[in-house]
Amino acid sequence: MLIVMQPNASEEKIQKVISFIKEQGFDAHVSKGENQTVIGAVGKKVIDKRNIELLDGVKEVLRISSPYKLVSRTFKPDDTIIDVNGVKFGGGYVGMIAGPCTVESYEQMDETAKLLSSYGVKVIRGGAFKPRTSPYAFQGLGEEGLKILREVADKYNMLVTSEVMEVNQIPLFLKYVDILQVGARNMQNFNLLKALGEVRKPVLLKRGLSATIEEWLMSAEYIMAGGNREVILCERGIRTFEHITRNTLDISAIPVVQKISHLPVVVDPSHATGLRDKVAPMSKASVAAGADGLIIEVHHSPETAVCDGAQSLYPEQFKELFEDLKALAVVVKKQFN
Ligand code: PEP
Ligand code: MN
Fold it and tell me: Which residues lie near ion ligand 2 (Cβ < 5 Å)?
C-alpha cells in the first residue's frame, strides 16, 4: 500500500501515520520528495484503506498488491486447465456447454441431448432450481429435474451442469451433476462459496449482475481458499443503462481477467443479450477475444419454452454456429474439445 501525504504535510502528521501503520502490523518505508512524502506500508495484514485515508495529512492511499492471491497469476503463472471428465476448459481448450434454460420434462431433455450430442456437444445445461425474479414464475422441477439431466446425459454420453442455489442443496448436486453452477444472483452468497470450497468438483462461477471484475475474482478466491482449485469463471453480461439488450456483454472482461488470473473464462451470450439473433455474433466475438468456453441456451422448440425462449437458439441454428466457432477458434490458436 502506498500512502501519499498532502504536499507540505508536517513532520508530526507524517510520524503519526507511520506510528499508526506500524501499530497495525506493517513496516513503513518512507520516501521524502521535495515537498511531498510517500509512505510504503508493507505487510501481510488486511486493512481497510479508508482508516488510513481518514488520518490527518493523508492525500490518498493506493493499494499495490491485489487482494486476490490464489486466483492470480502471481500464485500460478500458467493457465489452469479444468478437465471435467475429459472435457477441457482453458490453456488452449475451448469447452462448449449447451441446453435449455430449464429442465421441463424428460422428453424435452431427451430430444435436446440427442440433437446436441449429435453436433458434438459434450456438456448439457439446464436449471432444476431456478432463481426467478417473480415468485410466481416457474421455479424448476427440483430434484426431479436433476434426475432427468443425469439420465439423458448418461444416455448420450454427456456431462451435466446445473445451478445450485443453496448450501443445503450441495449433497444433491454432487449426486447428479459434473459442474456446479453458481448463478449471477448468488455470486456473493459467501456461505455458498465457502461450502463449494470444500467440494471436489468444478464450479462455474457466473459474474454478478452488477459485480466488478475484482468482486468476481474475490468470489472465486473464496472457493479456492476453501481448497477447491477448479473454478471456471463465466462472464454473462452486466447491468448498464442500456436496455435494448438484457445485459451488456463485457467482452473486455475476457482478456482483462485472463491477464490477472490463471482461471478459465467462459462466456454466456444468451443471458448477456437476451436476444436469439445476438447470440451468434456475441459467441464469435467471445471466441475471437480468447474465451475458454461458451454456455449457450438451446431449445428444441423456443416458442413453447417455459423460460428464456427468446434467447434460446433453434437446434439447427446452434449446429451452424458451433461449426463456425470451431473454425474461428483455430484462428486464435485454440480448439474446441
Ligand atoms: C442460468 O444460466 O440459468 C442463469 C439463471 O443465468 P444467470 O445466473 O447468469 O442469470
Ligand atoms: Mn435462462
Answer: 101, 308
Residue carrying C-alpha cell 485454440: 334
Q: What DSSP string runs through 1-70?
A: -EEEEPTT--HHHHHHHHHHHHHTT-EEEEEE-SS-EEEEEE-S----THHHHTSTTEEEEE--S-S--T
Neighbouring C-beta atoms of residue 268, cutoff 10 Å: 29
Q: Which atom of ligand 1 is nearest to the CA of 206?
A: 9
- Interatomic CA distance for residues 337 and 325, integer angstroms: 12
Q: What is the pLDDT of residue 47?
A: 87
Q: How many CA atoms lie within 13 A of 333 on its CB side?
A: 1
Note the pLDDT of residue 126.
98
Judged by DSSP in three states, 235 sits in: strand
Of 129, 146, 181, 267, the one to substitute when testing ligand 1's pocket (max ligand atoms within 8 A of C-beta) is: 181
Q: For residue 96, what pLDDT is reported? A: 98
Question: Which phi and psi angles does 90 have, rounded to 5°?
Answer: 105, 165
What is the rounded CA–CA span in Å between residue 36 and residue 167? 51
pLDDT, block means (10 residues), the chain with 337 residues = 93 97 91 89 85 96 85 92 98 98 98 98 98 94 98 98 98 98 98 98 98 98 96 98 98 98 98 98 98 98 97 98 98 97
pLDDT at 19: 97
Q: How far is CA 232 from CA 10, 261, 263, in A?
A: 50, 11, 6
pLDDT of the residue at 30: 87
The ligand whose atoms approach the alpha carbon of 184 most closely is: 1
Count of CB atoms within 10 A of residue 147's CB?
17
Cα-to-centroid distance, 101 and ligand 2 (Å): 4
